[in-house]
Amino acid sequence: MTTAILSLLGVIVGAMLQFFFARHLEGKRHHREVRAKAYADYLQCVSELANVQPQRQSVEGRQLGARTADAKCRVSLYGSAAVVSAFASFERLGATMNTSEQRSAFTAMVGAMREDALGGSSVQAADLEIVLLGAHDAT
């Protein structure tokens, strides 16, 4: 009788632990996905801005501005401290790519996003800058 009760108790405790661990891992996975999507959405907006350059007052320009603001808000909400700090540095410089300092700040921000989204996977800043901005713009 005691063995049966202990066995049943073990099964119940095991099921509860499995449930809580699965729930915890699902929450972490969801947060990681939301964070990575915010990073990707912001970078897509930057790419559209650089390649399409819609007029700010046009419907397309206002929609792109709204999507960019939304992505920035999600980055500030879900992003790691390192990403938010790198993002703030880029914004302080004007959030454009006109100077080598601005391009370096943008590259550092994308590098921080990459490390955060991929769990520490780093790449050389110079290589990342060439991929993002092209060889002729890289510092």
UniProtKB/TrEMBL annotation:
This is Uncharacterized protein. The keyword Transmembrane applies. The chain crosses the membrane at residues 6-25. It comes from the Bacteria. Keywords: Membrane, Transmembrane, Transmembrane helix.
